[in-house]
Write a structure and sequence with these properties.
Strand content: 15-25%
Strand order of the largest sheet: 3-2-1-4-11-10-5-6-9-7-8
Helix content: 40-55%
CATH topology of the largest domain: Isopropylmalate Dehydrogenase
Largest sheet: 11 strands, mixed
CATH architecture of the largest domain: 3-Layer(aba) Sandwich
């Protein structure tokens, strides 16, 4: 039975929605041991108000809460006694198999790095967001790393490939590089050098540059970007999805005839809404840390929190972190071999050049 640690206090709707979410998870998902970290009295009060029971779940009291306005370093400094910090330390100490939080993204990312620690060989963890479309596309990075190197992006691609293989049973996930054109020479020096690395990596099914308008056309399964570009793209996608749904609603409720049409199409409309509902995926995993850490949206309701718990359980069950660790070691060994070959090739070139000069 998996042990799932939950930060019950960090989100906009906590603890009311997080309590409802974990109770939904207990009813609908496979059996698990839940450790609820937060203000004990607030959690129990929220459960009573909703006529829910948290009996059988372990409550771990935490005196303080990381707010959305707090500095990212607060989890190891001023708020080391917060629900987020305590939960991450519990995960690091082996008291749980995965951790879920709706709290401050920067603080969670920092805490995951410094308390749970990186997978050996991974240069920089990344937040991987599943874009709400069919089939889903994994965006790595979606906001954690503003400054990146081509090697960081290469590792994001490797981690994203592992995640999509494990979680969606894809045999060879297609990797695309988010860029402003499909041609190889497009983008800045960062994108051009990353293109070369992704093309040369034998473990990746790299399909080239992917423009923003092609992401929705099933162009790739893993979309690689720096955190700044990725976050802007993610937020634009979310905003456009909401705009489309609002526009559709306004259209169907414009008059009696359209209302009747909406009634006839109710099932199909519901299916469309579900396809673009980010709550269906629940949260974004922080790939590259030594144990599963899931960042749920700050405004997560009960359904979204339940699905974030489901994702955490799947990550633990399917050994996503362990496979990333194995791939990181293979990547490191391959890089070392490539560097050795380049050095040997350069040595041969220099020797041949010296011989040529001697003859002259």
């Amino acid at each position: 039975m998996k042990r799932i640690i939950l930060d019950m206090m960090g989100g906009d709707l906590s603890p009311a929605e997080t309590v409802k979410g974990v109770c939904l998870a207990a009813q609908e998902l496979e059996p698990a041991h839940y450790l609820l970290v937060g203000d004990r009295e607030a959690i129990l009060r929220a459960a009573r108000e909703e006529s829910l029971s948290v009996d059988g779940m372990e409550l771990v009291d935490a005196p303080s809460v990381v707010t959305m306005e707090d500095d990212a370093q607060c989890v190891i400094r001023s708020k080391a006694d917060s629900s987020m910090a305590i939960g991450l330390r519990m995960l690091a100490d082996g008291r749980g198999d995965a951790f879920v939080s709706t709290g401050n993204t920067g603080a969670l990312f920092t805490g995951a790095n410094l308390l749970v620690r990186k997978v050996k060989g991974i240069r920089r963890p990344a937040i991987a967001a599943l874009l709400p479309m069919q089939p889903p596309v994994l965006l790595v990075d979606s906001g954690a790393n503003i400054q990146v190197t081509p090697e960081y992006l290469e590792q994001f691609a490797v981690m994203g490939t592992v995640y999509m293989k494990r979680m969606f049973s894809l045999s060879s996930p297609r990797v695309g590089l988010l860029n402003n054109g499909s041609e190889e020479q497009k983008g800045t020096r960062l994108q051009q050098e990353t293109y070369r690395l992704l093309s040369e990596n034998p473990s990746l099914n790299f399909v080239g540059n992917v423009e923003g308008n092609r992401v929705m056309q099933n162009a790739c399964d893993v979309l690689v970007a720096d955190g700044f570009t990725g976050n802007v793209f993610l937020k634009t996608m979310e905003g456009m999805g909401k705009l489309m749904l609002v526009t559709m609603k306004d259209m169907f409720y414009a008059g009696l005839q359209t209302k009747f049409a909406a009634l006839l199409c109710r099932k199909q409309i519901g299916s469309i809404k579900k396809k673009f509902d980010a709550r269906e995926f629940g949260g974004a995993p922080i790939l590259g840390v030594s144990k599963p850490v899931i960042k749920a949206h700050g405004s997560s309701d009960a359904k979204a929190f339940k699905n974030a718990i489901r994702q955490a359980m799947l990550c633990a069950d399917l050994s996503v972190t362990e496979e990333i660790s194995a791939q990181a070691q293979e990547w490191k060994a391959w890089k070392k071999e490539m560097a050795s070959r380049e050095q040997a090739s350069e040595t041969i070139f220099v020797k041949n050049d010296d011989k040529k000069r001697e003859k002259e």
